[in-house]
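Reopening this ticket.

The earlier resolution said the output was attached, but the attachment link was broken on my side. Pasting everything inline this time so it's all in one place.
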Amino acid sequence: MVAKLWLCLPALLLWAAPVVVPAQSVDLLKYTLQSLDEVATEHDLDQYTGKPTILIFFEPECSWCLRQTRVLNELVASCENFQAIAIGVNGTRRALQNTLRRLRAEFPAYQISRTLQEDIGEVEATPLMLLADDTGAFVTHMRGYQRTEVLVPALENFVPGYCA
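Inline output:
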């Protein structure tokens, strides 16, 4: 009986953790973030305005982030009207870069800035995805791994025609 409880503990902890939900007025693409490539250059996220965007937050040692990145890679490849951005949290720059190599994200990746962290609050569990419309305005959030069969209808519900 105790062994079964231990198996359920990770799911219980994820369910009980508070969910980060930015205020509806938050423009998710107004920030300047440092890229996670070898040359740490700063980029304004407003360059991604014009298409619905998912910001996926990842952290070191997150096996579910690896799975979620695979799903997002497929969506980005098959949907011209959609884009994804990875944002590393809760780790050093080097740890985030190592994790990013394992993720094999086929979309841009950045390290979270202090300003973005303050605006959205603490990211306590990953993967966390924030969906922005084509203007960068926050639409909704999804926490935990989302299979393609779940993610696609959810995206279509909030951003009709995102994958036309």
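Reporter confirms the inline version is readable. The helical segments are 2-16, 63-78, 93-103, 114-120, 148-158. Residues 77 and 106 are 9 Å apart (CA to CA).
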